[in-house]
Write a structure and sequence with these properties.
single chain, Helicase, Ruva Protein, domain 3, 18 strands, alpha/beta, Rossmann fold, 4 domains, Beta-Lactamase, 22 helices, five-stranded parallel sheet
Length: 459
């Protein structure tokens, strides 16, 4: 049974501050953390009314007006926390997160406990994240990326396992590297295993190592990636591709922090922070029995999601600037810029391949540019087509006829099929069968004209 002195020792070792209040909101007990946060010793705080400790805050003003503790009322109603900034007696300010816990009615010592958490470090991280345009190899200033930067900096301070999700090409490996570089393990090794790159019979040996003679061709003993990452970070990329029999062994490493090499019965301790990444829907795989539920929950202690590029298109100019600078370092002597029309074309495209596809598009443009400026015509065909489709949809939604055929036949936003077919035929007749010229007269792209001709069986 815990003693009163044991309870006091336990409370004084908590990071959170604890204030115990009676029904009149007077402080009847306090721990060391709360005393430090409020900048006062125990003697000055005990027997004081709670609102007097938080003078000038909205919480104290609410208590003063209503004559009752709004924090307790919120706790009873299920509301969680309240953030406030408290001025200490020495004039310094401290940001706190505060919530209340109503104690059992038969408790004679106190009516409720007020919990305080120092948000100084949290706010520093938020400020650092909001002012960042780059974190490691990650680049962006959109709301989604600023939130991701903030989550990375918080997670980096922990030793818990992390699961990074996101579409292929979105930058999951860059997130893992940023986590390592901002963690206490930054000076240790950073080891990556692409789980989909190894067949099942080789993946186990790659992860855990093997003894000499463990299988045909194993002429020497070899350490695995877990041992190589000792004292550092191990990224298990594409974790969704790991077979079920190896998932069992991964679970043991997470639980026991030890491995066994293939062909050995000797356990070896490993000190590794594990980060897993996948583009697959692991919860769906768990429901189908393709991925172990216990391993999934062990890995996603701290989940991080990388937004797709189409969800953060405002980052494209910044990404292009960074990527183009990197590409030009490999093409010494060339001074290439990108035009506004090319950037607008990037904005019209949906980027199914995400950031990786954006890099490839810039590489393509560097090969096809015939001057010092990348124009729309230098971009990959699928991006140019996306621009034309956007232009066509705008023309249909809000037509702006110019002259000639467009003015005579495209007065209405939508035509009957027979009228449209006659318009196409007339355009081809007036241009001598030149489809490019006909498309220009009609105010549509050549691809759209070709589709219309095919639709109406016009050769």
């Amino acid at each position: 049974m815990i003693t009163l002195s044991g309870l006091r020792q336990f409370l004084d070792n908590l990071e959170e501050g604890i204030l115990f209040l009676d029904q009149q909101r007077r402080v009847v007990a306090i721990n060391e953390a709360a005393s430090h946060m409020l900048g006062q010793n125990h003697g000055n705080i005990l027997d004081k009314l709670c609102p007097s400790l938080f003078q000038g805050t909205a919480c104290a003003r609410s208590c003063g007006k209503g004559g009752h503790c709004t924090l307790m009322k919120n706790a009873i109603q299920g509301k969680k926390v309240q953030d406030l900034v408290v001025q200490r007696p020495d004039g310094t300010l401290i940001p706190l997160r505060m919530w209340a816990m109503v104690l059992p009615s038969d408790e004679k010592l106190a009516y409720c406990a007020v919990v305080l958490r120092d948000r100084t470090h949290e706010m520093q991280l938020e400020e650092a994240a909001s002012n960042r345009l780059r974190l490691g190899g990650l680049v962006g200033h959109s709301v989604g990326m600023r939130d991701l930067f903030r989550q990375i900096l918080r997670a980096a301070a922990s030793e818990a396992s992390i699961l990074i999700t996101g579409e292929s090409g979105s930058g999951k490996e860059l997130v893992a590297q940023a986590l390592h570089e901002n963690s206490s393990r930054a000076k240790g090794p950073y080891v990556r295993v692409h789980c989909a790159a190894f067949p099942e019979q080789l993946l186990e040996g790659e992860l855990f190592g093997h003894a000499r003679g463990a299988f045909t061709g194993a002429t020497t003993a070899r350490e695995g990636r877990f041992e190589a990452a000792h004292g550092g970070t191990l990224l298990l990329d594409e974790i969704g591709e790991v077979p079920l029999n190896i998932q069992v062994k991964l679970l043991r490493v997470l639980q026991e922090h030890e491995i066994e090499r293939l062909g050995e019965n000797q356990t070896r301790k490993v000190d590794v922070r594990i980060i897993a990444a996948t583009h697959r829907d692991l919860p769906a795989m768990v429901s189908r029995g393709e991925f172990r539920a216990d391993l999934y929950y062990r890995l996603r202690v701290l989940p991080l999601h990388v937004p797709a590029l189409r969800e953060r298109k405002e980052d494209i100019p910044l990404l292009v600037s960074s990527m183009l600078a990197n590409i030009l370092t490999r093409h010494q002597g060339r001074d290439i810029q990108i035009s506004n029309e090319a950037l607008e074309a990037f904005g019209a495209y949906s980027w199914p391949g995400n950031v990786r596809e954006l890099v490839n598009a810039l590489e393509y443009a560097m090969v096809h540019v015939d001057g010092t400026t990348i124009l729309e015509r230098h971009l990959p065909p699928e991006i140019q087509e996306a621009v034309h489709q956007v232009a066509d949809s705008r023309a249909v939604a809000a037509p702006a006829p110019a002259s000639g055929l467009v003015q005579r036949y495209y007065r209405a936003p939508v035509q009957q099929e027979g009228q449209e077919k006659q318009t196409l035929l007339l355009a081809l007749k007036e241009t001598g069968g030149n489809k490019a010229a006909a498309a220009e007269k009609l105010g549509m792209s050549r691809t759209t004209l070709w589709k219309r001709l095919k639709q109406y069986g016009i050769d």
